[in-house]
Amino acid sequence: MIASAPMDDKAEKKKFLGSLIIPLIIVTLMWVVKLTEVSFGVDLSRYGLRPQTARGLLGILTMPFLHGSWEHLLSNSIPILVLGTALYYCYPTLANRVLLITWLGSGLLTWSIGNPFSAHIGASALVYGLNLFLIASGFIRRNRMLIVISLIMVFLYGSFIWGMIPSLAIPQNISWEGHLSGALIGIMLAVIFRKEGPQKEVYHWEDDEEENEETDDTALRQAQGPQAQGHDSNDSENSNGEAKPYWDVPTPSNDELTVRYRFRH
User: Fold this and answer.
1) Which stretch of DSSP H or E encloses residue 40?
2) Domains of the chain
3) What is the pLDDT along the chain (265 residues), one digit of tens a residue?
4) What is the spatial distance between Cα 190 and Cα 105, in angstroms, rounded to a whole number?
5) Among residues 151, 175, 150, 153, which one has the least CA distance to residue 164?
6) What are the two backbone dihedrals, phi and then psi, of residue 122, each rounded to the nearest 5 degrees?
7) Contact between residue 126 and residue 182 where contact means Cβ atoms under 8 Å apart
8) For the whole model, what pTM was predicted?
């Protein structure tokens, strides 16, 4: 991949605003559900994910929209906006697949490994999935911009790792199964899709470096002429026509040494 010129400000703004659409829709629906609960005095948590039960399978779809409190809702809304926008901005051709597979995959895995006597609500499994996908993808692809995004995600949400440890999560009534499921799905997708989407930048000077070296060597041999080439050949062989060991090859004189300077452009 050859590094392309940066987009102009107008195209950059358009791409950024387009990346906001899906995350903003998800967060809006999360708030609509919470406002509906409060306005009508209903508790929709019964539609959450209940592991290892047929009825609980519905929760794979509904879990991200249900939250136990305003604080819980807010703690998931901001990461969904940040991570979702980063996903759609950096991986526009992969974003829909990553989002859908993370949503369904993390829910299904949580349903499989969770405590059958528990109920899981909240978008944290999705948050963990998107976060780990962005972090892992940046380092796997070795793309500088994506690595920067990965480091930002580590800085912002690196402490999320504690939410996957049962001994720390269970006392706080936190779904460590959901967090772990999301993280595993995110890393898995980063590996599966590693050859799709943005890749490591290759600049012209890197792409042509090997070719330039070969051209320089050829030009140097031509400049030295056939006598120098014949001299090298004769010196490296003994009187019997056999190649001399490297320690018997005479050291070149100062006139035979050439200094070459390379400039990157």
Assistant:
1) helix 9-40
2) 9-192 (1.20.1540.10)
3) 444 445 678 888 999 999 999 999 999 999 999 999 999 999 999 999 999 999 999 999 999 999 999 999 999 999 999 999 999 999 999 999 999 999 999 999 999 999 999 999 999 999 999 999 998 998 898 878 888 887 888 787 777 778 888 888 877 888 899 999 999 999 999 999 999 877 776 554 445 555 555 565 665 666 665 554 555 555 445 555 555 555 555 666 655 555 555 555 4
4) 14
5) 175
6) 110, 160
7) yes
8) 0.72
Rounded to 5, what percent of the chain is helix, strand, coil?
Answer: 70, 0, 25
Q: Inter-axis angle of helices 176-192 and 124-141, to 10 degrees?
A: 30
262 Cβ partners below 8 Å, 6+ apart? 212
Owner of token pair 């703690």 = 75
Are 75 and 145 in contact by the 8 Å Cβ rule? The answer is no
For 46, other C-beta atoms within 10 Å of its C-beta total: 12
What tokens were used for 203?
A: 């600049």
CA distance 245 to 248: 6
Q: Which two tokens stand for residue 23?
A: 């995350």
Residue holding tokens 């829709």? 25
Q: Using alpha carbons, select from 40, 96, 31, 39 the residue that is nearest to residue 67.
A: 31
**Alpha-carbon torsion, ordered 164, 169, 170, 172, to 10 deg:** -160
Coil, helix or strand for 252? coil
Q: Report how far apart, in Å, the C-alpha atoms of 29 and of each of 22, 40, 63, 183, 203 are.
A: 11, 16, 12, 23, 43
